[in-house]
Amino acid sequence: MGLVCPTSYPNLSLITLLLVTRWQWRAFLVGGGSAAWLYLYGIYYYMTQLQLSFVSTIVYFGYLSLLALLDFLVTGTIGFVAS
How many domains, in total, are found in the chain? Predict the structure, then answer.
């Protein structure tokens, strides 16, 4: 429930107010937009807080990418279903 409401409301507003064609893709992309913020924060955290070796950096960004992709798919699906 923690991700459903904050993801659903912007999508409903966007689709209702704009009444765009191909609304399904727009709803999916707007819902999945939180993944971009997650990935950018991961980069910021790496630059300011972490001091890792090369291999650890590769592992960190690999897992960060997987987490951002999962977040994109989950919140994008929530946005699509809510619209």
Answer: 1
Secondary structure percentages of the chain, helix, strand, coil, to 5: 85, 0, 15
| Neighbour count for residue 44 (Cβ, 10 Å) | 10
Segment 33-83, tens digit of pLDDT: 889 999 999 999 999 999 999 999 999 999 999 999 999 999 888 888 887
Q: Is the dihedral of CA 10, 82, 1, 28 positive or negative?
A: negative
Q: What range does the domain containing 38 cover? A: 4-82
pTM here is 0.79
Q: Return d(Cα 68, Cα 74) in angstroms, integer.
A: 10
Q: In this structure, are residues 34 and 78 in contact, taking their beta carbons and an 8 Å threshold?
A: no
